[in-house]
Design a protein that fits this description.
This protein has 2 helices and 32 strands. With 435 residues, the chain is mainly β. The chain has 3 domains: 104 residues, no CATH class; 150 residues, no CATH class; 159 residues, Sandwich (Tick-borne Encephalitis virus Glycoprotein, domain 1). The radius of gyration is 38 Å and the shape is rod-shaped. 29% of the residues are buried. Belongs to the flagella basal body rod proteins family.
Length: 435
């Protein structure tokens, strides 16, 4: 019996050495979770059970459990590397074969799909054609690397102040080339359907107490007739307190809406030719089907210098992908050379009721099992799921000093069990040698 007891001890010590050695070997593996050998004693039993003074029969390896405690976060130079700070696993797919991992080595393949270093596709929420996240539909995350199509301007919002102390210009009529015929001016870039930039310039001419005329030219031309330099004109009236009087807006060229905004309709985007002087004509883009809505409702007339406090318009030229950013909730933003950004998708995480029940399959990955239960999928920072850190990786949670001590203990256990077998052998040899 002692031979079997000692042999079981040798086997268990070997298993302990194997587990410890595997931990040490993966001390530098990102996302690796260390294992622990768990042992149980053995007792021989009969049909009616064992007695209270029965002798043990050795030891067995009861389980090899994994410790899913957090590893250190190590920052890298790759913007698509991801680390989970807290609970959860990345969900990856290899042609439909789903696995879970904490190793965040991610990049893009030739088709723009986010993949790990084994080519498995990262799972998350995709976006529709308008850039809206399709929450609830988990699929492969794909980065759109193509150029961003231009967008024609449809909205122009401005907040400015006209100086109430200005005098009515003595020189008339208005001439955009003569600054003495107007009080103030400002220019804003707007875009046509092909992404060409055009300068919309507004010239403000004081015509009386609280009354102004706003003259509008695009590229120095009439918005509707490129061969003409006659501006679009709109009368602006301000209240005694300096606020824009929406009821006093009148224009023969712009449409005054009921809400106090202005519509510039039938704009003909134009461009000059190479002749001297240049001849202007339509540049071949589409006349906008939607008018440019100009919102001046927050304009004021106070006794301070002319200033444009804010201006925004929704058009832009074409743009090339210049970079990617991923926030702590897993939302992926693409930045373009035209200054725009667009959501490309959102990374999801999975958690399990019993993480110890997950089955390791190598490549720092696990798969679902009956013991683990079904995955609960959600976005980072929702529920009990952790947050994401972009440009970083989670280090192995192996503590080398502990593992080296475990090696010493396992070695001594092995030697002690070998000594048990050696002693039993000596006793047996003594019996054999009896005469």
């Amino acid at each position: 019996m002692s031979f079997n007891i000692g042999l079981s001890g040798l086997r268990s010590a070997t298993s302990d050495l194997n587990v410890t050695g595997n931990n040490i070997a993966n001390a530098g593996t990102a996302g690796f979770k260390q294992s622990r050998a768990e042992f149980a004693d053995l007792y021989a039993s009969s049909v009616v059970g064992s007695g209270k003074n029965s002798q043990g029969s050795g030891v067995l390896l009861a389980n090899v459990s994994q410790l899913f405690n957090q590893g250190n976060i190590n920052y890298t130079q790759n913007a698509l590397d991801l680390a989970i700070n807290g609970n959860g696993f990345f969900q990856t797919s290899n042609n439909g074969d789903v696995s879970y991992t904490r190793a965040g080595y991610f990049g893009t393949d030739r088709d723009g799909f986010m993949v790990n270093n084994f080519g498995y596709k990262l799972q998350g929420y995709a976006v529709d054609g308008n850039g809206n996240l399709q929450n609830g539909i988990v699929s492969d995350i794909q980065i759109q690397t193509s150029s961003q199509a231009p967008r024609a301007t449809t909205d122009l919002d401005q907040v400015f102040n006209l100086n109430s102390t200005n005098e009515v210009p003595s020189n008339t009529p208005f001439n955009p080339n003569d600054p003495t015929t107007y009080n103030s001016s400002t220019s804003t870039n707007i875009y046509d359907s092909q992404g060409n930039a055009h300068s919309l310039t507004q010239y403000f001419v004081k015509t009386g107490a609280n009354d102004w005329t706003m003259n509008v030219l695009i590229d120095g031309r009439n918005p509707n007739v490129p061969t003409s330099t006659t501006p679009f004109s709109t009368a602006l009236n301000f209240t005694a307190s300096g606020q824009l009087n929406l009821a006093g807006l009148t224009s023969t060229d712009l449409t005054v809406n009921a809400n106090g905004t202005l519509d510039l309709t039938n704009w003909v985007p134009a461009a000059p030719d190479s002749s001297v002087p240049p001849v202007w004509s339509a540049n071949g883009t589409n006349t906008p089907a939607v008018p440019i809505n100009i919102d001046l409702r927050k304009a004021t007339q106070f006794a301070s210098a002319f200033a444009v406090n804010s201006v925004s318009q929704d058009g832009y030229t074409t743009g090339q992908l210049s970079g990617l950013e991923i926030d702590d909730t897993g939302v992926i933003f693409a930045r373009y050379t035209n200054g725009q950004s667009r959501v490309q998708g959102q990374v999801v995480l999975a958690t399990f009721a019993n993480t110890q029940g997950l089955t390791p399959v190598g490549k720092t990955a696990w798969v679902q099992s009956f013991e683990s239960g079904e995955p609960v999928v959600g976005t980072p920072r929702s529920g009990t799921l952790g947050s994401l850190q972009a440009g970083a990786l989670e280090d192995s949670n192996v503590e080398l000093s502990d593992q080296l001590v475990n090696l010493i203990v396992a070695q001594r256990n092995y030697q002690a069990n070998a000594k048990t077998i050696e002693t039993e052998n000596a006793v047996t040899q003594t019996i054999i040698n009896l005469r």
